[in-house]
Amino acid sequence: MEFWVEMVELYEYKVADVVAGRDPRGGRRSLVALRDALLYGSLDSALQRRFRHADRLWRDYTVVAPPDAALLPGASPGTLEDWNMTPGNPPDVEGEQLERLAQGLWRLRLDDHLTRLTAHWRRENGLVTLRSLYALSLNLEAGQLRHNVPEENDPLVSLGNPQIALGVLGALIDLLLEYRSDTLTPVAWARSVMLELANNPFPKPKAGHDAFTPPARRPAERAQIREALGRGFETLSGLLPSSLGGSGDHPPVLQHLLFAHNPARRQSEPDATTTLALRLAGSGEIRWHSQVISWQKIAQGWQLQVGGAVYPLRREEHGVGLTRIPLEGAELRALLRGEYLVLDLRQVHGASLTALVAVGHAVAALLEDSDQYLHLRLARGVAQWLRDGHLDAGALGPQSAAKYAGATHESLLAFARKGVENLLARLAKRGEAEATRAFREVARLLGCPEDRAIRLLDRLREARERPQLSEASEVRREGEVVLLAYQGTPLTVSVMGRMLTLRADYQGEVTAVLPGSPALPVQELQVFVSPQGGVIVARQGMRLAVTYQRALAPA
Questions:
Q1: What pTM was computed for the model?
Q2: 167-201 core/surface letters (b: 16 or more CB in 10 A; e: else)
Q3: In the predicted model, is pLDDT for residue 62 greater than 80?
Q4: 227: which of 40, 84, 335, 517 is 20 to 30 A away, CA to CA?
């Protein structure tokens, strides 16, 4: 990814030179060649937007090309700055700030939709919708039908990378938001190109392609692309408002403001809605949706304090800064522009972080490899005992552990988690005394010390409880759970003196790195196991919880 960062920066410099009336190093031919490379490059969402912004300046210059053209800072890509949200009212500084924040909130919610669509279309066989929309974006950019729908495994596209796939959808939305015409809405313009592409998805013949593609596949492939392209385009265009030709929501109107300058829009106290706007007039504190939220001025701008944790608020010089704050079962998104702030509370569905952490404690015990994975064999034996009333001890002897030792970490983690959840479900239907008898009897049949079996049972009982979230910024003792917000940049936290780093891998997936262990992906639950204990990482969206659990087996 560092390579593409440098390429985008180089393109920005070359465009700035041209628009300022200077010849770029290597000549304009080098700029055009670099532009073509970036059009097919593996750019994440942020780089896509930087490239589109610079490219819009280049395209505007090639259309007008005034002799004294200067590079002027334009609006950030994806804004809707010519939408008049308060018709009839004279502009005021506070109102303009609220309007920009409302536009930022609208785009944030639109990006939520794009994230869900990306996840849905990445599960699609052949990635046909993403490939088709990618080609549509390139042809809209080119202004004519020039680019083919790429093949599924095209190495220049990398749509299997979630960040790149999301960037493709974001770039297509940016093109629609940037389009200006007196006769066509952006959606109507894009639909006309979409229909051309649907009718001819391969306008640029690839040398030797037909020689290697069975003729029978071509019509079927065209029909599949036509259907996916039409369905995908209508889904995306439906997210845009009617003023752009779509059927989606317009930006919200932020009419009320805590601590407002203008008495007409001043709000006396927070309300029960999930969106709150306020002016940061010095340090202050409010209580909103059972959360105490305070703010303070710092050298770099502003910071929020929520649940005892401090979050510096991100700023954007010409746009709206976004900071994501993890809460239990929810996410608080803070949008900042100048001294004005919008808080947007979004509920997060699925298992809560504390529930995942609790399950992770028991999973860590089952993953311990001491005594030929004794805990895992014991848990399987108890599940069999509770289900069938008897145990096949021979099938769960030490020799059965060979398959666990030979399994990949991810396979073993999934197997152990499924075992914990299955056993918890069975234990919930039995009394405590019956559960204790089952563990003791299975321990006897497997030759397991009784006290070790009871410790595993206690660990499983603890998994039914929700651990408390700590306000600390590091894990300093066993069972302490630290809540983190992953913002897309590497994040490091100390866990019992060891530094755990969370970062994106080359495919854009969130990955946990612990010294001495291989990097592991964090989809929902991940566990690093050592003879001393397990480091547990739970994830819910961009919210993560980290804790440490001492090993059950004697050292």
A1: 0.62
A2: bbbbbbbbbbbbbeeeeebbbebbbebbeebbeeb
A3: no
A4: 40
